[in-house]
User: Fold this.
Amino acid sequence: MAFRGNHQLDRALLELHSVQEMRDFWPTTRRVLHQALPIDFVCLCLRPFVLLPSTVFREKAPFASEREFKLFQELSPLQSHLANRPGTTMVRMSDVISDPELADTEFFRRFMQPLGDRYFACFCFWNAGTFQGMIGLHRTAEQRDFTGGEMEFLSRLHPHFDAVLHRILNLHRERAVRLSLERLLGNLPIATVLLDWDLRVSYRNRTAIELCALWNHGAVNGRIEKHCDDFRLPTPVLDYCESFKAKWNPGQHRVCTLMNPAGVVIKCPAVAGLCASVSMLQLDAAPLSMPIFYVRLEHQSAGASDGKADDSGRLARVARLSLREREVAMLVGQGCSNDEAARRLGKSVLTVKKQMRSIYEKLEIENRGRLIALLR
Assistant:
């Protein structure tokens, strides 16, 4: 979309659409907006991932701390306005609260007046009804409020920012989920199948292929299927995943690292000792992705020792540790003391001790020696 008579703005928009990284999005955004209209300063606030802190950029008077920014959000008249109007793409402060009312608020006295900041308008960005962030434009009293014509002009810019921002966030999401999945798989040396939210197989190992073949075709025919590319989970396991997915509350995964921690155990009716447990796992990139189905298969013969069965279950629970807990567990498994693990991870010793207690509880073990033996 060309903006007639403003070649510098057109060039800035072309540059914006070439941006691939968030570090380049902010300076390019500033150039576009300063070319578009007279403004005092620009700010950018992004919180695309609910469990992570907001990313805030301000050309003028950056926030001193996360606490100060949270207070800014709590006092802002725009917060409740946007909460009640999901999907709003453009908003002007004077349409939310009158000038005399705004001047009488603590928000104005604390955050606007000291900067000579008087008028405000912003672009808002959403994803499936969830607020992703905003780009704010600030003006002084001398620059006057944004006119209706200027707001209409800004509304023509919104699709440009929206398209670029979503492209960048999708790239970040894909990278984070891929890396998180790679780290997770490194801790699953057992018969394991991972299904994404659409029930597509993200990962399976050789042992899982063999046990699924045994379940689906029996001991004799299963030897043929386990060497084929036509891998499929047992029907009862897929049926459970389908039913769980149908009842799922999409908002739950944003507040829990692991849903359904006990899982459900499904036994094979035709093969004694063969069973599958199904749990929901959240990747380390928890705020970026939907949870995945973690299927663990076990075939315990009558002669299997209780100790080995217990270790298999504990090893499977390693996947339930958080990323930070797994980092601590792996260092301890290498022989590090709490002090050394704390130093290498940049944490306090008290934090490491708390994480060790959580690790023991999740793995159902009693001491450090048992953890080291289990991980080795």
The CA atoms of residues 18 and 164 lie 8 Å apart.
